[in-house]
Amino acid sequence: MFSLSSEAKVGLFVLAGLIILGYMSFQVGKQTLGLKRGYTLDVVFENAAGLDKDASVQIAGVEVGRVESISLKEGKALVRLRITPGVKLEHDAIAAVKTHGILGEKYVELHPGTRGAAFLGPGEQISRTERQTDIDRMLNQLSLIAEDVRGVTSSLNRVLAGKDGEEAISSILTNTRDLTRNLNNVIVSNEAALRAALENTRELTGNLNRVVTQNDEKVGQVMDSLKAASSAMEKTFATLNEITGGVNRGEGTLGKLVKDSATADKLNKTLASLQEVTEKINEGRGSIGKLINDDETVRNLNEGLTGLNRYVNKAEQFRTFLSYRGEYLFDKSDAKSFLELRIQPKEDKFYILGVVSDPRGRWTTKDITTGGVTTRTEEWDRDGLLFNAQIAKRYRDVVLRGGLLESTGGVGVDYLALNDKLKLSFEAFGFGNDRRAHLKAGAEYQIFKHIYLSAGWDDFVSDQDNRSIYGGFSIRFEDDDLKYLLTTTPIPR
Fold first, then answer.
1. More confident of the two residues 287 and 203
2. Burial of 223: CB neighbours in 10 Å, binned 0-12, 13-18, 19+
3. How many structural domains compose the chain?
4. Taking Cα atoms as reference points, which of 139, 124, 146, 101 lies closest to residue 41?
5. Cα separation of 33 and 31, whole Å?
6. Both ends of the chain: CA-CA distance in Å?
7. Share of the chain above pLDDT 70, in %
8. Domain membership flag for residue 66
9. Which of 104-108, 223-227, 229-233 has the highest mean pLDDT?
10. Mean pLDDT throughout 76-102?
11. Which of 106, 148, 206, 293 is the 20 to 30 A CA-CA neighbour of 268?
């Protein structure tokens, strides 16, 4: 049987090792030649400590080259990188020296620049770098922090060591536990109140925000007014300074009073006379003394003032309104006009007097006798004016009216909304056996201070073909507006 000697086996093992070593050397040489086929880029770092020649160059953790050489240039580290062919870097690329872990080897990390920008060519320099963390400086700072911590712990050990320290810590923990328990009890027992307080605070901040937003212009005006007031106060202080200077110099009445002894004597005599008068008043002598000290006189005066106050309040409550309302009847292609005077002696009671110009006129009934035969005719009198005379009473947002409506008896009801800016009305008048009642429904809305828009349906159950949709406007003035208009209107001469 064929067998190998020990010397032959050793020789075969050595031969296999040499073949494997040659193959690995060929592969490493092939990679090195591949890198030599790339292009070089230069980058200058403030500090390249720990970075070795042939260190890895990576982008996003993928190796794209090696460090070819490291040299000194003007006190900085000039690092030449050999980049793999096919890898392109933009002009605004960034280079940084990084470390694998805390104690790992250093390598160069590249961050590509803006996509679409021009690429760096062979031999060019990467201008943007990131400064690497100085491990030695960081360790020194950590050492200083450790020393400070050691000092604090030593102080705490001295303070808390022993029985007194344990008792102090136990007391602090007990007080903290009691405090948290009491706070919990307070919060639980006042949970509803706290929720209400938070809700009120939220509403308050919302209201304040709305007020500030709505009154932004007014706040600016107030600031301007404050600036003007401060300027006026400066002038006032300057004037007061001049006055005090004049007083110190003895100028004017006050200066004479301060500097002139004769003037001071006269003032003292005057004050003595005033003292005598006040003593007589306190004793009840004279008219003023009786007024102050006599209860009956004071009571009569109070009753008179009370009556005068009631009269003034009634006069302030008495208000007068003058208005014109025009309504265009779309079905009749004509206009209807109202001129009304509203007299309001109280807030919840008023009277309405007015005239109405209706293009349809007034429905009249006439008896004509011819040859002893009486004939009744019904027709519209288009020449005459119609009259309104109503009394009204307000109950909250509802107003009830009754009286003469367009020269016939009738009633009306109004509903007021949106702070009295919107009024919904319904009227019924002209009741009779010969025709249906005149029913009218409409709405009126205030768009400006004196201007109102109105719309509705007039005589909507008419059997005389008088029903019509209408739209119009009103102009209304109060007594204060009328006073202003009358006082500012020029009088012809």
1. 203
2. exposed
3. 4
4. 124
5. 5
6. 158
7. 79
8. yes
9. 104-108
10. 87
11. 293
